[in-house]
Specification:
- The chain is mainly α and about 280 residues long.
- It has one domain (about 10-275): ABC transporter involved in vitamin B12 uptake, BtuC (Orthogonal Bundle).
- About 80% of the residues lie in helices and about 0% in strands.
- The longest helix has 30 residues, at about 130-160.
- The chain is globular, with a radius of gyration of 19 Å.
Length: about 280
């Protein structure tokens, strides 16, 4: 594995894995706390429409997917804020239409034999230098937003009614979180694919939530845990010639099972030590 580090594509994959893990840790925490997992799943699959359009018109994949995903995020924010009783129906519709648009545009692209697996399950070993700039820029932007608006986002995430009484624009921050989620989903697709992206945004966060006492510590811990899972998964995929995205998620799943087992043992030990 050490000799592989001399290859540029391996170096890019490692950097991309760490960047996306940190992004997923931060945004995944907001998604879980705000109960947006289903919305994020809808955005992930809708982004495929942007991928298909980008391929058809010869545009950068990240650009097409980002614009389409952000548009879907804004639309979902409007729907969930104004028509909560029909939320599941509309999100399912947007999800299906986005996927259909992507597939049709890829079908219409002359002479293009697209590898659907690379988008469904990720292609971290194919990350380009320009992709790294996009990922680093997104991470930097997210950190800047948190530095300026952390308290407002915290209030909106845990108690929107209290945030409204404080004069915080709940609709704006709700939409902002969804837009950041959309962009995070787009970069995560490159690593684990749109089928598995929700696992990357939830498994490390579940573990971090048990180990943290605040939203900020939850973001930091989940980012670190996600980075460990990603690097281990990337190493295993290289050594055994496995699909990188699926391997990363399986490492995360095994890590979650081990954590739950240790947690159960710890609780059992505490009960035997303090039976009262």
């Amino acid at each position: 594995m050490l000799e592989a580090l001399s290859y540029q594509f391996i170096q890019n994959a490692i950097i991309a894995g760490v960047l996306v893990s940190l992004i997923s840790g931060i945004i995944g925490s907001l998604i879980v706390v705000n109960r947006m997992v289903f919305l994020a799943g809808g955005i992930a699959h809708t982004a495929y429409g942007g991928i298909g359009i980008a391929i058809y018109f010869g545009l950068p994949i990240f650009l097409g997917a980002s614009v389409f995903a952000v548009g879907a995020a804004v639309l979902m924010a409007m729907i969930t804020l104004n028509h909560r009783e029909r939320m599941d129906t509309f999100i399912g519709l947007i999800w299906a239409v986005g996927m259909a648009i992507g597939i049709l545009f890829i079908d219409l692209t002359q002479g293009y034999n697209v590898d659907l697996m690379s988008y469904l399950f990720g292609s971290i070993l194919a990350v380009a230098q320009s992709d790294l700039y996009f990922m680093a820029g997104l991470l930097f932007g997210i950190i800047i937003i948190l530095l300026f608006w952390y308290r407002d986002i915290l209030a909106v995430s845990y108690d929107s009614q209290y945030a409204t009484l404080r004069g915080i624009n709940v609709k704006f921050f709700y939409t902002l979180i969804l837009v950041l989620s959309a962009l995070s989903v787009v970069v995560a697709i490159k690593v684990v694919g749109l089928i598995l992206v929700i696992a990357l945004l939830t498994i490390p966060i579940y573990i971090a939530e048990k180990l943290s006492s605040s939203l900020l510590s939850m973001m930091v811990i989940s980012g670190l845990i996600s980075s460990v899972f990603t690097l281990i998964g990337l190493s295993l995929s290289y050594l055994y010639d496995l699909t990188s995205g699926a391997t990363i998620i399986m490492v995360g799943a095994v890590g979650l099972v081990l954590f739950l087992g240790l947690e159960k043992l710890h609780l059992g030990y505490r009960k035997t030590k303090n039976p009262t």
